[in-house]
Description:
Elements: E1 2-15, E2 18-31, E3 35-39, H1 46-53, E4 61-66, E5 69-70, H2 76-86, E6 87-91, H3 102-112, H4 120-130, H5 146-158, E7 164-168, H6 176-193, E8 196-201, E9 212-217, E10 220-222
Parallel strand pairs: 3-8, 3-9, 6-7, 7-8
Antiparallel strand pairs: 1-2, 1-4, 4-5, 9-10
Bound molecules: adenosine-5'-diphosphate (ADP) and magnesium ion.
Amino acid sequence: MAILEAERLTKVYEEGGSRVEALRGVTLELEEGEIVLLEGPSGSGKTTLMSVAGCLLSPTSGSLTVEGRGVDFRSPADMVRVRRESIGFVFQSFNLFPALTVLENVLYSLQVRGRRTPEYEREARQILQQIGLSHRLDFVPAKLSGGEKQRVAIARALSGGSRIVFADEPTANLDSHVGLEVLEIFRKLAKEEGRAVLVATHDPAVRKVADCILRIRDGLLIEEGSQDSDPTRGH
Ligand SMILES: Nc1ncnc2c1ncn2[C@@H]1O[C@H](COP(=O)(O)OP(=O)(O)O)[C@@H](O)[C@H]1O
Ligand SMILES: [Mg+2]
């Protein structure tokens, strides 16, 4: 069963007299246990699509169902609820709190997600151990390598048990072998924990970890195989 279903999403940015149609009717489904790549050149709508599907941004039209419930985009509270309960984000620039340690960054995220129980520190330690950072708990982000920072960001996205993870160009600031390691973490999360992972990228090297590749151009998903590249696996 699809854990996330987006139907005919459109997004028009209108600012100061200019009008950009960033999404022009995007329909997609994410399944549990699946890692999906979203490929497209800069400006094609990847970030906008993830922002709308991740309930950070309202679409101009279209609908979204997350874990079986329709999202009410007119209600900021409903969007926050969906983000807290179901969705984790990983960004290209990590977006860690520089003054907080690795452990504190994850604890903070758990607090935002409403964790108040004494077990939440155990949960944070467990996630960080799972992702191979137990030896870095007390480090601040400035003392971490790029790959380690991105792993903290992943730990944070996973905290609270989000079933859906959106990663927006997560390897763009990493050396290519580190980027592949990060992608392998995403793949494991999908396969071993049944999470649904959508990764935006324009790095062809990461294709091999994907179950499925979606291509976006000018705000529209295009058919697999209809362009230059050659996806190895599809739905
Ligand atoms: N906040 C915004 N206001 C106006 N236009 C925007 C905004 N964000 C993105 N855009 C435009 O929407 C289009 C899609 O952008 P984006 O979703 O960021 O693409 P990508 O992530 O693939 O680079 C681009 O033409 C971009 O300039
Ligand atoms: Mg982008």
